[in-house]
Amino acid sequence: MVRYRNIACPIFLFFLLLFCGCSTHAPNDRHARYFDPVFKKFDDADRTRMDLAVLYLDSAFRAFPNPSPGDIYSYDSMKSIWVFNINNDYAKSLAYNDSMIAISKSRLDDENYAKRYYMALYERGDRLKRMKKYDAAFEYYQLAHEAELKYNKGKCNTGRYNRGIGYIMFDRERYLLAANYFLKEYEDFNSPCIADPKWLLRNKAFIAIDIYTSYFHAGLLDSSYYYQKEALKIIENKSAIYASGFDYSKYISSIVYSDQADGLANIGKYAEAEDLYKKSIAGTIRAFRAYTQVAQVKLAELYLKQGKRDLFTETMKALKGSLDTLNMDSQMMSWLKIKSKYFQQEKQMDSAFSYLKKFDELRESIYKRNTEVENVDVREVIQNPNLKNFNKALQRDSQLKSLLITVAILVFIMAGAIAILIWKNLKRTRKLNMRILEKNNELERAFGSLEQSHAENTHIMRVVAHDLKNPISAMQNIMYGLLQREQPANKKKMFEDIRSSCSNSLLLINELLEERKRQSKKAEKIN
Known about the structure:
The protein has about 525 residues and is mostly helical. The protein has helices at about 1-25, 30-45, 50-65, 70-85, 90-105, 110-130, 135-150, 160-170, 175-190, 195-220, 220-235, 250-265, 270-285, 290-305, 310-325, 330-345, 350-370, 385-485, 490-525.
């Protein structure tokens, strides 16, 4: 089952991504009449002749004079799937994926591009997961999930988040957690909003396989057996749904047969296991040779374990022929390792060491390739010169348009700023003139009030000086004269009080007169 995870999950994702790429509503800028037949022909191509399908796709794309961003996105999507799952060229696949993300991210206001954006992020997570960069894969799955929730409000979710995290948990041997995530997606398939019954049933069967595989590794054999039966039940009860096109029921059955054979081989029931491995190979040999190789490896190991050398040699020869036309790194490593083990049993140590050395070299090259992908310059990856020239022209055109828009915006902003400054200056000048006039009026009124106050003050001082000072002074002198004579005690007290009051009044009048003189001198200095 572990080997199934190494090849069956990528194949599942291969068809899932092809379906998503084709089923996404085409953006309005796509040339659908030209490209849709091209993409459909590529999608429907026999998987054993994918090289010819890719050549057709490339030539059709180069022949179109001005592909739109939507056309480029669809092309990049198919090429990304092809180079990753078939050619195992991780660097180039990531380059195509970068282009998909960049194209869709700049057009998120369009519903179709928004969907393509989070699907491209999910695909990025799938790539990184296959490269065992689990932290980065988890980050992109989370980004894609957030974007899906944001731009896919009120619509069916893709289930890609639960599936992706489930694969990460499985690869990290956290099988119960993986099963829980797969179960969440399995339940999503019961949603009535999934319109394509063929797609629904096919992928529901795949997820059932993921669930029973996870439970098997977690040691929950009853649960594993239940979902294994569920996978078979789906394809047996609905086999008519695959009447047109490829019969996915055979492929899914082949996976189940291979897993059942694993269990039988582990308990020593080799004859039954051999029959199931052969049934698995027969169900995938025409269209899914990648998985056929997995079953062939297991069958060869079974023959080697039983000492059936003729059948072993025949199976290894068929496997090598398949690897020569469709080289899968993991199966090539298994082939080399089995050959080394075979020659060890035959006591041919030189040959055993030679195959073991080739095994180590291949493993080292795969590790080096995976570790160097992060440092690849995306601009140097895509080898198609026409696509390079188109991308450069597209960049120049985009830069020129951006420059013109920027200049226009700057001119508009400057003109607006100048107009606003002139208007504000005129408004400020009018306000300033009004304030000056108001201040002048206030000063005139204040000056008039000051003159009036000064005149009133002068009049008061004159009254004080002439009309009040002399009578009080005379009264003081009279009181002084009366006190020089003999007076009764009560009159004497009254005369003294009157004289004292007169003295105080004269003192106050003198102070007022002195203050008046000082104020007059200050006014003369100011004038």
